[in-house]
Structures
1.
Amino acid sequence: MTKKQIKIFIKLYWIRILIILAAFLFLAAVGILLVVGLRNFFTLESFYKKMTLASIPLQLFISIFYTLMFVTFIHLFNVWFYAGGGMAKMGQKKIKSTKVNVKWEDVIGMESVKREVLEVIKLIKDRSQLKEVGGKIIKGVLMIGPPGCGKTYLAKAIATETGLPFLASVGSEFQGIFVGLGSSRIRSLFKQARNLAEIYGGCIIFMDEIDTIARPRVGVSGFGAGMDYNATVNQLLTELDGLKQSESNIVVIAATNVSENELDEALMRPGRFDRKIYVGKPPLEDRKKLFEYYLKKTRYDKSINLEVLAKRTVGFSAADIANMVREASMVTIRNNRQVITMKDLSESYDRVVFGLKSEIVLSEKEKRWTAYHEAGHAIIAYITHPTDDVIKASIIPRKGALGYVGHRPSEEIHTYTREWFLANIKTALGSYVAEKLKFGTTSSGVDEDFTQALSLAYDMVWRFGMGDSGIVGNFGRLTHKQNPWAINISDKTKEKLDEDVQKILNQCLKEVEEILTRERELLEYFAQKLLEKGELEYDEIIEIFNQYGKEKPHRNTP
Amino acid sequence: MAKKSLIAILLSCLLFSACRPVSSSYKRENVEAILKNICQKEFSINEIIVKEIKDTFWIYLPLKKFVVAKGKLDPEAKNKISHIFLALRRTILSMQNPPKFYAFAISDITYGYDYIEIGYVDDLRKLEMFYISRNQLLERTVRIIRWDENAKGDLQAAHLKMFDIDFPDFLSLLIAQKIRENLSQGRLASYYILVSSQGKFNPDTKTIEIQYSAFKKNEAEKAPSSFQEALKIAYYFIVKAYDFGGFNYIEIKNNYSGKSRYLSRKAFWELRLD
């Protein structure tokens, strides 16, 4: 080796050389000490030799004992850190399946959903059947549905049923101030899950509101905005089904309120979120079962007709029903009763749907105004609506509104006809016309009504092609800026569409004017009744309309 | 696999090699020469005399200068004493069939002054194994201090009457010495005046006889009982320190007051003076 070669060698490997040298010196020192020590040991008198030798077993025992203690401590610390959550930065807690304690029998209704989920549970618990066939384990289950329908509840039932550790997290936890925080939290979550899966044989990760981090990846602006979000999504994609594939029994269950189309395509593909389960609002039968389930936990009047309750609560979610029963029990206590009655349930229904009674005190003039305003809504809704019943009219302020009229369909509707839209527009405009007819002027109270009417008319024309001009297409969606398929429509088309909207509104206004002018007496009577009683229930409303010979309009059945 | 077997064999050799018994470094027959040799070679001390009297080992060190002032030892003398004591410990403890007692006699051959320490070899062993402390060893050592004209110029220990010590004798001397210390220098010194304290073992009756003579400085003053103190001291040495049962009776007597107790071994043990 030449001098130059030696120099280069030293330059490249100087750290290794230093380490080897240090190790060699250390070993040499140990060797010398050993030799010197042994030599001195052999020169000791027998008594001291015996003393030294006698202490060796004890010293050995002590060092083994301390080593075992240290190893045990480190092992327990690791188990605590990974299995117990330890110093997890996210704050997500590992929830023991025994603590979740939501049994399968506690999930009411949703039979088809439960069937699908049960299959997933079976596969999580026993993969042997699947392996025999040669199938791959399900990685992810996405539950989509409106809020309060039982997605989280179902996930808890899955945790209890499988008996596996349940890591619950919320999408917003993966967002933070610092770049890289989201992806780092995803990594640590999955790492913890893998460790738990090793210890317990499996793990369930539940991500609520996954739309926070599962929307389509964004373009990165000049200043790097969006990079962190993309990094978080990419990390999630990798963890679910990335390059490092390993058969750990981890299932990710996610829940979201938004449609599947609004989430990132890569997440929705098979191999990541393999199963998509739609958890919708409960139908009539399920609502009946839900009322039965929640009322069973209370003391209630057995004569309560659950069918009537179920019919009244069309569009209610499971959470709404639970809330209603809870409110009813509080009403019962407030009224010093022992059992929940139908009246308490009605009152709690009003609280849930219409809100708490407000502290606002109306003057006589304002009361009159509100009475005619609400009477307008009620009459038009009763006479024109093809599906809804008017169930309540009130001039007692609630939820910031001075009065309200509640109308609900008597059965579930999944498709909305033109007539349905028109009836709702007319109902909204009813208050405006009533005020104009009675007082010769109008007020700001029509603010929300106009918003609703315009919104409905807009949807009719821009989304559902229900305008008179005959232009068809979903212009509302396709002109949305966030939509990657967004198109530009001409100003001419926009003008025509706007004209159609106004036409619909004006037509409806005209019809409402005709109806209310014709039914002036009814309007006066209704308003007076409202002023007298403050609130009119369904039966009272029916009685008023029957008095004037008004029957319920023919239902527009397809 | 071969590597693992080799390591296992090496470890086994290392372990089993320690199973061989350790033989004593010194033989009793040669101990005089060995001790002299150690003192000479390691500490350059040539003047010691070593004698074996049955089960008691005597070491005699004549010094020209021993005590220089009240309570102060000559530094050179102090050095020599500690070296010899170290050599004594090493030799006795590593000896085949060691003696039971040792007696270390130091004489100031200029002024005729003897200082003799008599100790129990087992206590040395306990000290080395940290079973007892240095202070406890001092407590368990009999110290004899006396003036003797015959010590002047005696390099051969001719003036010393070397004797073999029995354990009961040793214990009696120890108890008497401790009573003397407590009543004359210890916590009871402020209440009592000690005239004398002696102890001996009567081999015929197998009785430990402890006699002391002490009286109260002030009769009116309430003082702890000297008799009780003497009993406690005897109990400590016989029962707690040495667990000695080789006697039939124990007699403790205050010659001044006439108070005495004569107890059988069983009765003495049952006193439980903890």
2.
Amino acid sequence: MRNYGPIDDFTVFELYPDIQLTHDNIEHYRALAERKLVINRCGACGTWIYPHRPMCPECWSWNVKPEEISGFGKVFMFTLLYHERDPGSATREPLPVAAVELVEQKGLRYLSRIVNCRPEDIRHDMLVRLTWIEIGNLEWPAFEPIPGLGSDARG
Amino acid sequence: MARNRFNDTVAVVGVGSSPYGRDLRRSHLSLGLEAAVRAIEDAGIDKQEIDGICGSGMTPLAQGGAGFLSLQGALGIERCTWVLNGWLGSAFVYAASAVASGLCDTALIVQTYQRDPGMSRSANADPFRRALQKFGDVGGDIGGSDFAKRWVHSGEPYAAWMKRYMHDYRTNKDAFAYMAVNNRSHGSRNPAAVMQQPITLEDYHASRMIWEPMQIYDMDVPVDCAEAHVITTTERARDLPHKPVMVHAASLGGTRCGEYYENTLGWTENAHWVAAQGLWERSAIRLPEVDLFYPYDGYTIDAVGVLEAVGYCAPGEAGDFLKANWDEAAQVLRLNGRTQVTTHGGGLAQGRAGGANFYSEAVRQLRGSEGARQVDGAKTALINIGSFFHDPSAVMLRAE
């Protein structure tokens, strides 16, 4: 599904019925529905703030606004799921899930899937870039190796 | 040194355990009541002496289950001046601190755990367990449907950290394997353990892969069970039947990244390190004086993290350290030649009690009442329960 903004609050609630939407995180999901990955950033000191919080933890400024990220990062940590706990879910084995450290800031890690890469080729610190995958009739962010760099960029 | 209000002034005087089993067909409350009654009887006190209760659950005011709102009425305890729910190792510390602060004189801790429906297909086929998931406040999974926000299940970040740990320290799975075999060896000598068969290092490595690199033998065993403890002042404890087991010092641990499991911190900045440091700032008993060591084993990476956090070895050296401290004949660990580890088998063998059975075992060992399994002369026990992402506890217990 491809969504086109602007999307009002009611639509965001309809699109993400299983997410506990709050005034602090709704812009993230509104942006996802527009196929954009945004992370909160402090307008005063520039710190990227994730998870979605309304105040900068470094300088306590409330001037915090979502900003689109570059989409580049590296695989900080990952695991391959051979078993899903939810008995109702389809078992795709092995399913790679990863915490991707975004280039914007040290320690700024976003949980996502690694796609377009054989599970056995995923490496720590491998360079990746943002892409989108469809799950449950919605598009979600995922990360893929950068062609020519991907599996060779080993940490 | 930081302030230490415990300093042996509060003591564990009662311990009670329910049976352990994969399918006991009993409610949280039923299991909790059995453990509670046993603990109060073990303490040798009248139930009306209980004036504080720490029930089971992640939600402080949760209703139903074995939360304090249910336990007090179900036990017929008239009056409490302190109540709370808790889980993992922090429940014990909450109750001990309530006694130390004077909010109550005699606290009852009840911790119940069940094989939740999310843990296996067979568990999910049980309508009682499904109802637990639907209505329960305990054991909620971290994650839900939003994979962009969180892991698929709460356990995967532990697997990912295990992998990152091996990568950063250029090490293998030895540390995890020794911990798993140690716990299963001890479990084979504990009649209460659901896993009675010991395993070998080879068995460990050959076990089923769940979340690479985490294997089935790295994970605690989901069971139905309950543990209960009675804590009171050491002064009162001296009038009671058992040798008092005193809380010498304790710490909890919080980091700025507890909420989200991707964790912006590094391995040695995680919550177990914070709790361990908090303990060492308060404890006059130092690591070389520890007779018994109880590192939580929800996953073996927890136990390895705790081992390094409390200072048995440098970060990344757990594999070599455990190998050098391995008793080949007994297939158990003896740290620095003597300190035994998780003498009841922990969650990996006795069963998953959120660490509550580690306290029970430590208290029984320090009383000297474990019979054939008794570790001679054990006077001190270090217990570290919880997650390296959130609310770990570090507790030093001692007997006279």
3.
Amino acid sequence: MNEKTVAGLQCSEVLALLSEYLDHELDSAMVERVEGHLLGCPNCERFGRSFGSMVVSLRRDSIASESVDSELVMRLLTQIDRLTTEA
Amino acid sequence: MLDRQKSDGSISDRDLMVQVAAGDRRAFEQLARRHAAAILRLTRAVTGQAATAEDALQQTLLSVYQSASAFRAESSVRTWMLTIARNAAYRIRAKSDRQSLVEERLMELGLGAGWGSGDPETIALAAERKDTLLRALSTLSVQDQEALILRDIEGLQASEAAALLGIGERALKSRLHRARLRLAAALRRESEMSASAQEGPQL
């Protein structure tokens, strides 16, 4: 990786800031610098775009909305009923 | 984070908790069904095994049932249940091994993730396949999986996830970033394995 300095930031600094940039946790001045670097550095722009897409895929509804086998829940609830009755 | 309000008009988590505290078995079942998948994702990440993850889920549900009246609404019901689940999973895990944490340098993590490579798009393409993404996630350390599950999959705020994990927000953000880079590296490995499997044996 050839380190470049664009918009006052080195590539490694942009790498360190990528998640905070994607999570909207940087102040506006730093956002401007990161975006300036991405505009002038194709390597970081391509990696940042792909990294951001990965995070979006991780957040997609289909993972969080997966349900648990109904039989498992019923079995556990039955065991809990037994435990709380015995107590 | 606010409890999930159901658009179909079904009862909120907090109202269910009030009913569970009053001994309402149906309300408890509804609460269990609503959160079992999220709890199981987290406990599986911590214990590393489906069977022990189910044990942790059962202990969590039992704790929730028995201590519903102690819930003080200082956090959302989901965060409270996930906290109980994490503690249960770690108690189970403590009986087995303890994992050592070796901090890798950020640039090394970046290079492993494809930063500066000729094909950084590999991680985005691999992540589009849900089974590949979940398989890559399962290869990460417990700490990495916890950060990704709580922040990116369950959507907890950074402050909530940090409190649940017992660390500061700054540490949580650092852990999450490193976990995402390791996930990207794992996705690249999955992609390479898939490509070589498709090529078949060299004759």
4.
Amino acid sequence: MSSNGTIRKFTTGALAGMLAATALMTAGSALAQEETIKVGILHSLSGTMAISETTLKDVMLMLIEQQNEKGGLLGKKLEAVVVDPASDWPLFAEKARELISQNGVAAVFGCWTSVSRKSVLPVFEELNSVLFYPVQYEGEESQRNVFYTGAAPNQQAIPAVDYLEAEEGVERWVLAGTDYVYPRTTNKILEAYLLAKGVAPEDIMINYTPFGHSDWQTIVSDIKAFGSAGKKTAVVSTINGDANVPFYKELGNQGIKAEDIPVVAFSVGEEELAGIDTTPLVGHLAAWNYFQSVEDPINDEFIAAWKAYKGKDTAVTNDPMEAHYIGFNMWVKAVEAAGTTDSDAVIDALVGVAVPNLSGGYSSMGPNHHITKPVLIGEIQDDGQFEIVSQTPGLVLGDEWSDYLEGSKDLISDWRKPLACGNFNVVTGKCGGAS
Amino acid sequence: MSKTRDLLAALVIRLTFVVALFAAVLMPAAAQSTDAELKLLVDALAARGFSETEDAIKALAFTGDDRVAAVLGALGEGNLFVGKTSKQVVIGRAAGRDLVLTDPVTRAEIGTEPSAAYTKIRVNNRLRRTIQAAIGTLTLLSDNPVTRRAAAEAVMKTRDPETIPALDAAIAEETDAGILQVMQEARAAAVLNSDAAEADKVAAIATIAGRGDRESLSILTQYIAAPGEVGVAAQAAVDDVNTTIALWNAGQNIWFGVSLGSVLLLAAIGLAITFGVMGVINMAHGEMVMIGAYTTFVVQQQIRMYAPGLFDFSLLIALPLAFLVAGAIGVAIERGVIRFLYGRPLETLLATWGISLILQQAVRSRFGAQNQQVGNPSWMSGSFDVGLISITYSRLWIVVFAIFVFFALMALLKRTPFGLQTRAVTANRQMASAMGIRTPWIDAMTFGLGSGVAGIAGVALSQIENVSPNLGQGYIIDSFMVVVFGGVGNLWGTLVGALTLGIANKFLEPYAGAVLGKIFVLVFIILFIQKRPRGLFALKGRSIEA
């Protein structure tokens, strides 16, 4: 009996304590809400994509910290809200909803895979918030609430193919990719582009492998066989994530040198190379809009800040990090111009905003919510960095609707009033997608 | 000033072209250029664009000067620098933040200067090819047979008719039969590309077809459409070579299959003990493999830091450690969680799956989500050719290692008191207990053994796989597949199952593609299990039936 009483007493006490704590916390967060502008970070910190996305969370935290040191935004401090969608695509949508409706963030920086982006699109539309998406993707999309700071196919894939053709004299193409939406769409565009350039269908080989594929012996030997038809052959790789490391190892093992069959990759950056001995890979290529090896004072500053932030002299920077750098600065500038973090005002103010990128130019936000970027082609070096061998003379604006695909070549996107349409068909004169 | 220099250099290149052409025609034995001439040509390498650099390389090669090969070699390796202010081209060797400089012409050491004052001369693949061809032509008469062979191979790739005089000179001097053959093949390739007589070309086709490999196929295919005899001969030769290649391909598929099978065997063999012998559905098995791979990483890290000389032995040191670490974690899991769940397979499955997530995240928090670099010791890098099959050392060692682990485990279970007790507990727990066997202790040790074996599998897999927290996930399904297919509780079944699946996969892959191939294998296993639920080699016995 007495023990029962103790328990009841304890429970009441605990309850009262919890109530008080909750009250305090609510008050505290109410207070904080008045003082800070919240920025949501939606990157996987666990699961398969953690390998790529963790650094993006860190770079956002660093950028926010730097902005706060400069005095914050609109006289308020920025506050990062980090959530972990755990590489689980539906969870991205839930976490996005949590960020926007519960935490009241002004903008969200996040997503990596296209499928995660597709899963959060309806949430951003419904709750009218702003998403900055920092990764190269397949195009064929333009949403009012999304700002695409990574490359569209015309800012990466097509210039890379042009380079190989002009500089290396490639006539035979292997399009190798991981089996999901980004490689499949990119390869469809590339195939149409190559056929339009007069490449014979038998000179194109398309190959897909599952995520995390690790036994590349057969495919690499197939590539070798395909490459012995007397024409210069190259591999265009949209292989994503972990699978790249064993792929490159196998290339090295089977003695395929870059001078014989070069591989140009769209998803391999400094971060991915950090896990391999790159000596056998020297000369293989990657196309990006930024490399750590870009020689520019702003880039040097950024790399130094990043190394200091990570506390590691070996920390590397890569293209999606630059995309976040550009996106974050664009958002800051647009908020300052609009004088508010209100989504509608910021979305309008973002179009036309120009900020310095890390390769010595200014990137600006186009009316189609894609940005202008230089296209760089780099060759892998033995220290895991890229030597830039080609750079477009000017900046290229992302083209969301590919000109080489049936059904998307007539579409344009312009989010400025009065058109305000993401898929305007110039032939039918109607907003509403593919004809 | 610098503009005039550029102009002058360009002029010198053009002139040298002409002069060198004459020289090549008139006197095959190359004359030595003066230092000043050579210096101008070398400085021209630091041109603005790749095409200009290519011209400069060709001009340098035309001099035939024996100092040129070293300069071009340095350029190919990225060791050639140009001073930011002096515009002088030098050979540099990085030493910390400084460069140790050598004069490219006189080979004299110039001194050490900060690397910031110099820019590396960039090369791309096209230039690398040009450099190799140039060095090839220059070193055909080298004293070193390895260099001569490499030179002949490089010249072969150029198929440049202008190399024929140089090749003829080299063929006349050559004594080594192997290198002589490569040189003759290189000459044949050049002849095919020249405007030689038809009979010469047909002979050249025969020479090249003699190689019977992909390189020859790649050359011959280009002449199929040639008019007259040449086209006919080329077509016949291509057909011949294709037949040879098809045969080798079958052999290659078997080798690839054995190699994949050995990887599957390594991954599954620990599970064959924990799941096969003990009946525990251990979803954290893959994480034991992952922990073994991380142990290798840590061992290599320590070796790099404290004893770089021992690097070649890093895997041998990592093996026992990985066994102990993974085994100890296995014992802890068995004592801490699994022993409370015996006889409740669903709960065991969920609990071990939870443990696998915990282990993954723990590794991710400690080491980061990025891949860790695990190096290959020198005896595991590279490959050698058997006919047209290139066998990589790492795969070969993994096959050997998998077989070794298999037989060691077999011996342990069949020939030692511990093995006897384990089998007794598996066969009939009550009776074993009544005979005085400490069954809980045997449970813990057997689980530890299975986990430890998974750990050493991780050491081997670290050589061909990404060492990341997700390493194990990729293997868990495959491992269960192998064990179930081979027959639960039977190590031989695991061996046969792994090799069958490996080879089947590799024969399907060229036709069906990697994605479909895997699906076919899965469908096959599902059908097979319907027919024979106990797998290939079913154990018979009273307790098993119960």
